[in-house]
Amino acid sequence: METKVKRDFPELIEINVGGRIYTTTKTTLTTAPSMLSKMFSGEFKTGLVDSSGRPFIDRNPRAFFYVLEFLRTGQRIDTLKCDGTKEEVNNEFIYFGINAPADVEESAATPKKKRQKTVNDDTIRDQIFYPQLIKCLKKTCIVDYEQTYVFSLGCFGSRTMMECNVTRIDGVIGYDFDIILNSVSTNSEREKFQSVLKEDIECRDVKVMKKGHKLVKIVITV
């Protein structure tokens, strides 16, 4: 028989939803009344965990992305424009007991509010995003001969998509793109970002450039 126990979760949480790993915060998961709120606030006892000790939820991993986006932003993504179907996503909102409005096509004339930087952003950036990004860059960059790699980082929802001019890479980094934008928003932040990359990657030069509000380029010369 499965034994369920109450857990005291940290602010930064990794959860396994149907085999896909999501990284978020306890504040996000408990921001609205729902099954998730009760699970991660300790009101409900948690059940299964995966081999790494992450809470495991046996639900549709693709559709859960839209549930998490709603908890993060308070706004529901139009699933007709994305890779999920309306029925799949609606089923997840119903399952988790989240009261969310129906899909609404966002007006292009409605300005988006800029997301404010938080202390949690710095924690996610330094402890998770930087190491994951560096691991991906080191795996891609071959230092045996001179080459310039141009990595383009853009956003899809809150996920960061990454492409390279030289080779195909596994291009999904599952963290809020605004965290990356905040990492390059000022000269000092950009220099820190470059310094972290150059220190961990064997290369001659690293340049980080912000291109508007939807694209960041990393140019690495090895």
Q: Strands, helices and their partners?
A:
Layout: E1 12-17, E2 20-25, H1 26-29, H2 35-41, E3 56-57, H3 61-73, H4 86-96, H5 119-140, E4 148-156, E5 159-164, E6 172-173, H6 177-183, H7 187-200, E7 205-211, E8 215-221
Parallel strand pairs: 1-3
Antiparallel strand pairs: 1-2, 4-5, 4-8, 5-6, 7-8
Describe this structure in words.
The chain is an alpha+beta fold and 222 residues long. The protein has two domains: 85 residues, Potassium Channel Kv1.1, Chain A (2-Layer Sandwich), CATH 3.30.710; 103 residues, no CATH class. The protein is built from seven helices and eight strands. The strands form two sheets. The protein has a five-stranded antiparallel sheet. The longest helix has 22 residues. The radius of gyration is 19 Å and the shape is elongated. The N and C termini lie far apart (55 Å). The N terminus is likely disordered.
